[in-house]
Amino acid sequence: MPALDAAALTQLRGLFPALNRTAPSGELAAYLDGPGGTQVPESVIEAISDYLRNSNSNIEGEFDLTIATDELLALSRAYGGSFVGGDAGCIAFGQNMTTLNFSLIAAFGRTLKRGDEIVTTALDHDSNVAPWLLLAQDLGLVVHTVGLKEDLTLDLDDLASKLSSRTKVVAFTLASNAVGTLTPAREIARMAHEVGALAWVDAVAFAAHRRIDVVNIGCDVLLCSPYKFFGPHLGMAWVRRDLAETWPANRVRPAGITPPGHRFETGTLAHEALAGFVAAIDYLAALGAGDTLDSQLDSAYQVIEQQEHFLAERFLAGIARVPGVRLVGPRTAESAGRVGTFGLVVEGGGSARLARALGERGIYTWNGSFYAQGVLEHLGIDLDEGLLRAGVVHYNTVADIDRFLRVLTELHADAH
Question: What phi and psi values does residue 400 have, to the nearest 5 degrees?
């Protein structure tokens, strides 16, 4: 059963201006592009505009606009802490997740020595792989890659075989951005800690779909991107306090060192984006119920998970009957195994052609590798060809899915 009835979903969709876009066919556009970045509610747009109109200033001055900006930064950290379930002082913001991850890895790298080992996975976006490979080249480190099983879940036996007393980090994703696979995060973090390594988590493809809780996961570093959960383009990280306070960060000499997350923020932040981030968290909180932001977010993600599970079941039941494409990754909608991101292999190639044809009919999907190089290599698929990717978030509808499946079937018939 969906968590949102027809009236509630219509009201919710009315908060998103983009969802009113009409395709050339006369139908509303179907936004199945969520894995690449979600749409934003009007409140996020207004918050960004309002900041630029009424509060635009740099920080740490002695007049009202700069004081308001200081307060916005403090509120953003508080909201970031609530969003990930961790210490607000350990939140760092940056241009995007990839840039922020390079910065954090560079700081941590100063604590490593030649011969230390890093473990990454074949399930990950390259933003949590390539920075480690480059660091290894510079410092003489060893990087191991955890392989995948046939169903595109992580091979934990392979992970265990690659851990040792020399392992310093296990870097892994919470959810595949290409095929939706979830990872057993607590188990991976436990295995990392047993050999004295850090658990370094990419939550970008997870954050729109499931509640993040860094304490429950037991991770040491976690990164995500607000533009993947109804906010603006921005990167956010949480770093365990003792690490955030002691890593030798790249920073200019006069810059402050408190709160500890600020140590990894170079230059002036995009304050207007932070205003949009706060509005995005408020939007999510309003989906739930409770007396505190934390409890509201807990409740909201129960709604989101139930709604997306309903949509995922619809998608998976339908895609099995569409000729010319093959689903890769988990084939069940069970919430323990996947989020609503679906990777499709196109028979005979042509993922770009199909994505283009769908787009011309107002159905927005993605095609390519999505920087998930390890997944495509495991599947034996050329990076240039890649997959066709569709995804659902809680604002999607049954009509979006049914139209995608119908048009995909028609396009296959036209091509044959």
Answer: -60, -45
